[in-house]
Amino acid sequence: MKLNKKEIVDLLPHREPMLLIDELIDIKKLHSAKAIMNVKEDAFYVNGHFPDNPVMPGVFIVEAFGQAAAALTAHGIDKKEYENKLVFLMSVEKARFRNPVIPNCRLELNIEAIRSHGRVWKYKGEAFVEGKKMADAQWSATIVDRK
Predict the structure, then answer these.
(1) H or E stretch including 130?
(2) Taking a C-beta distance cutoff of 8 angstroms, is the pair 137, 109 a contact?
(3) Contact 86/146 with Cβ under 8 angstroms?
(4) What pTM did the predictor assign?
(5) What angle do CA 9, 59, 131 make, to 5 degrees?
(6) Domain locations along the chain
(7) Is 116 exposed, middle or buried (0-12, 13-18, 19+ CB in 10 A)?
């Protein structure tokens, strides 16, 4: 099972330029998936970070993890249950940035839902470029009502 960018847009409230993930593939309902993010040279978060030596900020890797987890969750639960809901990041734990992510690469985010208690979910993920681990983290999110 996989989702393209248009299908992700239907699940998440994020819009350009903040919608970071391009695909969600290898989906195992409410358990795991791989998100694909094409890191581009002209992305707004790269232009000033850093001139002449562009690097994707680590906080955007964490945001991409969160978006992938939100899409996995939104896709897996009943559409009527998710209607008028949002997934909000609650905490980030054990985030490690192992190698710099430079533009013009394909960042692969392997995410897994570790557990859920009601509206609170816990996830873990690892980010890779060409098989090399770039970052990993654990985080929690909650499903809230839209206002």
Answers:
(1) none
(2) no
(3) yes
(4) 0.95
(5) 80
(6) 5-145
(7) middle
Q: Which amino acid is at 86?
A: L
Instruction: List, for residues 98-141, the tens digit of each pLDDT value.
Output: 999 999 999 999 999 999 999 999 999 999 999 999 999 999 99
Q: Which of 14, 31, 49, 117 is catalytic?
A: 49
Apex 71 CA angle, 108 and 127, nearest 5? 20
CA 134/CA 145 separation, integer angstroms? 34
Q: Does 49 qualify as catalytic in the annotation?
A: yes
Compute and round to an integer the Cα radius of gyration of the chain: 15
CA distance 112 to 65: 10
Local structure of residue 70 (DSSP, 8 states): H
* CATH number assigned to the domain covering 5-145: 3.10.129.10
